[in-house]
Structure formats: C-alpha cells, structure tokens
Amino acid sequence: MHCYLKRFLKIVFTGALALAALVLLNLFIFRMHDENETRIRGFYMEPKDSVDVALIGASDLYFAYSPVTAYEEYGFTSYLYSISANSADLWIDELKQVEKTQHPKLYVFDLDNAAHGCSADPDSTLRYLTDNMPPSKERAELVNRYVDKNNEDGRLSYYIPFFKFHSDYPESFKDLEIRVMNSALRYKRGYTLLKGGALRTKTLRDDGLFDPKDITEKEEPTAQETKVLREFVEYCRSNNIRNVLFIRTPHAHSDTEEEGSADYTESLKVNNAMAEMIRTYGYDYVNFDGDYESYGLVLHSDFAEYAHVNAKGCAVFTKALGELLADTYHVKGDHSARVTNEWESCRDFNDRFMRFGIEKCTENAAAKDDKSEDSTDLWLWETWKWIPEISGR
User: Fold this and answer.
1) Alpha helix positions (H), the chain
2) pTM for the full model?
3) pLDDT at 205 over 70
4) CA-to-CA distance for 123 and 146, rounded, in angstroms?
5) Which domains does the chain have, with CATH numbers?
6) Cβ-based neighbour number of residue 391 at 10 Å
7) Is 188 exposed, middle or buried (0-12, 13-18, 19+ CB in 10 A)?
8) How far apart are CA 117 and CA 86, in angstroms?
9) 3-state DSSP assignment of residue 244
10) How many CB atoms lie within 10 A of CB 371?
11) 386, pLDDT greater than 90
12) Which residue from 20, 148, 184, 349 lies 20 to 30 Å from 68 (Cα-Cα)?
C-alpha cells in the first residue's frame, strides 16, 4: 500500500511540475511576442477606473498617439487598447473588455478600422487580442465565433499558445532575454511604461505625396462594413454609451503607383461616407487625415510609410488630439496618489523614448539610402538595456 501511495505522489508531483513548466513557457517564451502583447496584457494591470480616455484602433493609431506625452501636456490619463490590423467587427468585444475594469470619460475609435472589409483574421488579428486576454467566458466566445473547429492549429492553441508556438525557439540569447525580461519586468513593475504607445523611425520617401484636404468624395462602404458599423453605433446607443468619438488618423497619400500608395485615399472616401451615418446617430467624427498644416504635420518628414506617421509625426499628432480631448471633451479626471505616482514614474522613460525616436527619424531622413524600408523601427519593448539613451543605464 505504501509503495502505491509513493508512486501516486510521484506521478502527481511530476504532473504538477509539468503543468508549472507549461504555464511558464506560455507566459514568457512560447507565445506571440510583439507590441500587442505588452499593450493588451498591460491594460489589465491598470488600476480600476484610472483611465480617462480609452483609444481603440490599429497601428495607425498606436504609432500616432503617445498616452504619456498627452499626460505630460494635458494632465489626463489614456490607454491604447489597440491591436495590429484591428477590425471594427471586434469593437463591441473590445469595448466590453475595457468596461470590465475602466469607465473612461471618453472612448476614441479610429474609423479606418471599419473601411477594410470588417472581418478579423483568426490567424493574426484575433490572436493579437485573444492570446493576451485573461482566461474568461468572453475569450472563449470570441474564439468559438471566429475559429472553425477544424482550424489547422485547433481551437486549443487559442487558449494555450504553446501548441501554436512550441517550435518558435529564441534565435539568440538576446532574443531569449527580450522574451523573458519584457514580461518579467512588466509584472514586477505592475504596469507598462508607455501605456500602449509605440514609434516608427522611418522616413517615407515619395515625391508624389499630397495633402488630401480637398478630397470630399464619398465611396459607399461594402454591405459588411455598413452592417458592422451600424451594429456598433446601435449597440452604443442602446446601452446609453454616449461618450464616443470617432476619428481618422493621418495617412500618407500619393499619386504615384507605389504599392499601397492609393489604399488610404480609398479608405478616406469610405470614411467620408461613414461619417454621415455616425452623425445621424448623434456621435462626433473628426478627420485628421488632411489639412496637415493646420496642426503642424509636415508631409515629407513626418510619415514612416503610407499607413503610419513616424516619431516626429507622433509628437505632432499627440499634441493635436490631446488638445482636442482636453479642451473640447474635458476628459481630465481626479486620481488617487497611487495612479498619479504611476504616471509620473513613466514620464522620464517616455521622454527618452520619444527623444531617441525623433533623433533616429532625423538620422534616417539624412541617410542616402532612398528605400524607406531600410531604416530602423523602434518597437514597444520596454527592456532597453542595450539602448542607453532610453534605458538610462
């Protein structure tokens, strides 16, 4: 009898070790490692009801807006609950996630998310969100809605990323260090340093760039896009969510035939048509994609590519949007000493982060290389010990 008990305990102990190892591997190594992880996981670490403004969008938004810079300039707190290639058919789910812990004075949605088909890709966009959500009924519902049960990776991989990324070994010691330390330091600190912000440091080189301020033409959205947007605004109205602002972030427009050069001109026309629907429901829409001179954006130096502004453009757009939110929507709230101390502790890192990004933009713009792809990207990693200008080490 004693022998069987000993064997049973050994099996239980071994199983517990294996489970603990799987949890740690999922948490630190074998998962999707990118800025989406830091941004979404970091959101759930924010103190309850500490966010004045929640911004929901895609990379167009999170490369253009710096929450900590806005806090320094205007005193309100904000967070980018945003993911790469976000799609408006996820907006209701994302809004519900924000409302589980926050009740912001204002929601800001980037309307461009509604102009590219409105069908989230389960192999990329959905994973950026669900892989980083806490285990919950809502996460399971999202997976079941978007992922076919016969999906090649299986639905289980959406709950346990190890089954998707088990072969994604770190390529170097530095890669391993980034994966482990980026998460470990975030958990130790208890919050993210940039509140979802990120930067690009390329400078787009295109002689055909133009300001689209005169584009008032409207292009009808597809049936799917119309359905998704209407369902969202009706959901907001029926749930008495009136504190919603729709915006369009700046994009680079060109009359050349470069790949991607016309994409955002087309989506601008679709957004022009969508703006009418939004206003009929009583919601505001502000278009920053045009008349750049009115708020200081410089066409030939402030874009990284057609979809994104660079660090210089981020500084300019953050000031323009921050001023609008502070002066028109009066979003500044009162916060506890804990929340204030947290945001104050982010300022020094953010200042160095922004300064470094702008300096890299200047270097890249001065380089003789005429290919915009061949320059540095400054991603969201908050473990920067090999960049002393940011880490302070």
Assistant:
1) 2-28, 35-43, 59-62, 67-74, 91-99, 125-130, 137-146, 156-159, 162-165, 173-189, 223-238, 263-280, 311-327, 337-366, 388-391
2) 0.88
3) yes
4) 10
5) 48-119+191-391 (3.40.50.1110)
6) 14
7) exposed
8) 11
9) strand
10) 9
11) no
12) 184
| Local structure of 197: helix, strand or coil | coil
pLDDT at residue number 372: 43
Tokens of 334: 């009162």
Q: Are 284 and 246 in contact, with CB atoms under 8 Å apart? A: yes
Please say if the pLDDT value at position 379 is more than 60.
no
Contact between 121 and 80 (Cβ < 8 Å): no
β-strands 209-210, 253-254: how paired? Answer: antiparallel
pLDDT attached to residue 171: 63
- DSSP per residue, 291-331: -GGGGT--TTTSBSSSS-B-HHHHHHHHHHHHHHHHHTS--
Rounded to whole angstroms, the Cα distance separating 229 from 234 reads 9
Helix H or strand E segment including 199? strand 199-200
Task: Taking the CA atoms of 181, 184, 188 and 189 in sequence, report the sign of the dihedral they define.
Answer: positive
Give the pLDDT of residue 376: 43
331, 75 contact by CB (below 8 A): no
Per DSSP bridges, beta strands 78-80 and 209-210 are unpaired
Q: From 108, 224, 123, select the one nearest 165 (Cα to Cα).
A: 123
Exposed/middle/buried for 5, CB within 10 Å: 0-12, 13-18, 19+? exposed
Please report where in the chains the tokens 């099996």 appear, as a residue: 11
Mean pLDDT of 238-258: 94
